[in-house]
Amino acid sequence: MAAAAVDSAMEVVPALVEEAAPEAAGLSCLVNLPGEVLEYILCSGSLTAADIGRVSSTCRRLRELCQGSGKVWKEQFRVRWPSLMKHYSPTDYVNWLEEYKVRQKAGLEARKIVASFSKRFFSEHVPCNGFSDIENLEGPEIFFEDELVCILNMEGRKALTWKYYAKKILYYLRQQKILNNLKAFLQQPDDYESYLEGAVYIDQYCNPLSDISLKDIQAQIDSIVELVCKTLRGINSRHPSLAFKAGESSMIMEIELQSQVLDAMNHVLYDQLKFKGNRMDYYNALNLYMHQVLIRRTGIPISMSLL
Length: 307
Known about the structure:
Shape: extended
Number of helices: 15
Largest sheet: 2 strands, parallel
Protein name: FBXO21
Radius of gyration: 27 Å
Strand order of the largest sheet: 1-2
Strand content: under 5%
Helix content: 55-70%
Order of helices and strands: HHHHHHHHHHHHHEHEH
Structural class: mainly alpha
Organism: Cervus elaphus hippelaphus
Pfam family, one: F-box-like
InterPro entries: F-box-like_dom_sf (IPR036047), F-box_dom (IPR001810), SirB1_N (IPR032698)
Domain Protein SirB1 N-terminal: 217-307
């Protein structure tokens, strides 16, 4: 019912009527309010997309206030799909009404495909060619993924079959994307390859439902580097490596200076942050996944060397 109401609102919005000021006294008082106040009311969170569609069809002023690129539809989009907002830059021009429509359509398509999987593969495993319909989907892939995540996050034990197939489809979508990124990464010249980036791609591929990004992991490692620099500054405030800018590197030949860096690193990693090697469960896969190494502060030499 809610989806039908939103779809109805989407049909109402384009058919806006350009009329003179409304005759109803209450509405007349409303439209005479300052634009900032009206915008605040419309973005208060108490109105649904269907409500905004009806409001915008009453008069020209409210229609202009509810224009697709304005705050009103942006707030509607944010409230309904908050996890998608990280994909937009504050400087981007976005027609939020159109974006809302595209996301709504993608959600309906995703649910349609999940329902078809439930019917087609109820008594068997999904074959390799069973995902061919997904490859032909139109629209931003992140919208389909977001809808699948919404299905997985449905409360209680409802729609367990849908959740089962939504998880399979989400695994497929994300692993295919990560695999393409990993292939492109491996084709780069050795000088441009980053061991950390490669490790993150492997981490993402093996944990497609986890929120893992190179940016976040790099930020955590950068914070560790800052702690090491602070400690090194206390050991030797004139150490040449302290003059390096981010991303710069140079060989330091003096043994004493090298030892000072190692002392600072060991103090931060093992004394201050309590990182440790996993001797008791060396072959546990969690020792290799960078996001888990940073969370658990436990790893093995090959993963710890990337810190």
